[in-house]
Design a protein that fits this description.
By secondary structure, this protein is mainly α. The protein has one domain: Orthogonal Bundle (Urease accessory protein UreF), CATH 1.10.4190. Helix content is 69%, strand content 0%.
């Protein structure tokens, strides 16, 4: 990876990206209240399971398919995977989260590159997605392709960004110290690499997830009396 490409990836995957990721806990808040997550060990276990069998794995797989559709300039396929993921969302909260963050990322990209629709034919797909619900993984794929970040780096960047957001939520909620959070991210690195390798060769017919725990946590969070994170 070139230096310029690396800088773009770091910017796209940064927790500082102003798309609102910090305001969502993806069910962690309700799990902490219920006592299902009470330490760095239990939070790390939850993230590992989501990467191997749950939502993190599925979202990253769809992001990769969106990226490949953009590389082929296949608007039909890109729209298909965007709609597929919208239909796969288990709760309204998870759907609204993904759509809000996707819309914010597309808006940010156009603010940074107002001539993207005119000059970059790879991003002609932006024109249609601005007027409909666009999932975050699809928006991430559009920006990664526009910034010429390679396929594997984009995949790892997405997974790391997703995991970092959950770790940061745990730091606030459990609460955990910053050192414990950084240790958790170090522990998760082999899992992120393994998940990326599996997702990179995952056939369409194996796009499934075991996310009933996340669905219950999300539905519980929607009605949680007192909460720090958005629903």
């Amino acid at each position: 990876m070139g230096e310029f490409e690396l800088l773009r990836l770091l910017q796209l995957a940064s927790p500082a990206l102003p798309i609102g990721a910090y305001s969502y806990s993806e069910g962690v808040e309700s799990l902490v209240e219920m006592g299902a997550i009470a330490s760095s060990t239990s939070l790390e276990h939850w993230i590992r399971q989501e990467l191997c069998y749950g939502a993190g794995r599925l979202e990253a797989a769809v992001m990769l398919r969106g990226y490949e559709a953009i590389q082929r300039r296949d608007a039909v396929d890109l729209q298909y995977w965007n709609q597929w993921l919208l239909a796969a969302r288990e709760t309204e909260e998870l759907r609204l989260q993904s759509v809000q963050m996707g819309r914010s990322l597309l808006r940010l990209y156009l603010d940074l590159h107002p001539d993207a629709l005119l000059k970059n034919k790879q991003l002609f797909l932006l024109d249609g997605l601005q007027t409909q619900d666009c999932n975050l993984p699809i928006a991430f794929a559009i920006v990664a392709a526009g910034w010429q970040i390679n396929r594997q780096a984009a995949l790892l960047g997405y997974l790391h960004s997703w995991a970092t957001n959950l770790v940061n939520a745990g730091i606030k909620l459990i609460p955990l110290g910053q050192t414990a959070g950084q240790q958790m991210l170090l522990n998760l690195q082999p899992v992120l690499l393994q998940a990326a390798a599996e997702i990179a060769v995952l056939p369409d017919e194996q796009l499934d997830s075991c996310s009933w725990g996340l669905a219950i946590a999300s539905m519980t969070h929607e009605t949680q009396y007192s909460r720090l994170f958005r629903s």
